[in-house]
Amino acid sequence: MNLLNKKFINSILLLTFLSFGIYIYGCASAETTTGKLAYQQKDYAKAEVELKKGLQKNANDGEAWYMLGVSQIELGKYSDARLSFEKVRSLSPQYSQDAFSYWALKYNEGINSFNAGTKSLGSKDSVNAARNFRQGLEKFNAAVNILPDSVSTYQLIADSYLYLGQNDSALAIYESIIEKTKSPSDALGIARVLYQSGVISMTAEKYDDAISIFNKIKNLSFLDKKSEYYEVALFNLGLANYKKLESTSDNATMTILSQNMVDNLEPLTMQTENKDLLKDSYQLLVVAYDVLGNDAKRDDAQSKYNALNQ
After folding, report:
1. What is the CA radius of gyration of the chain?
2. pLDDT reported for residue 218
């Protein structure tokens, strides 16, 4: 699939009144007051230290937790920030909204970098494309630790990994997404990543690896069985078994491999509307039926293959 066909993704249009203004500190501890002042001055390292001290004395200060979470994001301490924002959501509706606005800020910054990356790819500028995708990935990783339930953020993290050629990382994210959404479109994203890895294995003649990968596509939950990735996975399973068949003379192994070809290619011939895929499948089935000694099916497959060639 051509990744450049993906349209630019629009930023979330929000009036984000971020909580970077003036705060009334009330009866906060000296440490909390110092931490909030450091936060206002964007001294996030000092703010983190002092806010932590203050929160040991008053763990119910939603504003302090919010400022601590922002400081930790700005310092790149994402796992710590995730815990801080969890406290914000449990303590304060007001600062929960501020956290959402902060998420939107990071998300939109990621979108801007992501779109710049796709634009660079369109101009065949791979260096700037990679730089922009990495920058976008950093912003999306920040966003997902502010608001962990944002499926759209996970989707963009996976897409960014895919553009950067980090297929394993993309696949892990796609798999986590499908557990949440149970969506055919998300299953298609997983199939796309697996397919690319499967093709690489086939090209490298690593047929056992290819069989394992294409079997994952075949058995992928929520994947539309009429999708091109499902059908091509069935065909490549047949082809990989055929390639292994070519390199063995052991009768038992030949029988197993031929039956594997039949198990994948027969269902494909019953559903596909792709003439080339159908023709190639019948050609492989002729071989498989011949090994299995099924002369009637072999002759029928040969006849259908010949008809498609006319």
Report:
1. 27
2. 94
The model carries a pTM of: 0.68
Residue 27 has pLDDT above 60, yes or no: no
Tokens of 211: 């069989």
Calpha distance 251→248 (Å, rounded) = 8
- The residue whose two tokens read 């796609």 is 174
Distance CA 97, CA 164 (A): 33
Q: How far apart are CA 60 and CA 170, in angstroms?
A: 38
> Can you say how many angstroms the Cα of residue 254 is from the centroid of all Cα atoms in its chain?
37
The domains located in the chain, with CATH, are 30-91 (1.25.40.10), 100-165 (1.20.58.80), 182-308 (1.25.40.10)
pLDDT of residue 185: 84
**E runs forming strands in 123-228:** none
Q: Residue 5's Cα: distance from chain center in Å?
A: 17
From its phi and psi, is residue 182 left (phi > 0), alpha (psi between -120 and 50) or beta?
Answer: left
Check whether 13 has a pLDDT greater than 60. Answer: no
Express each pLDDT in 247-285 by its tens digit: 999 999 999 999 999 999 999 999 999 999 999 999 999
CA-to-CA dists, residue 110 to 9, 140, 143, angstroms: 10, 6, 9
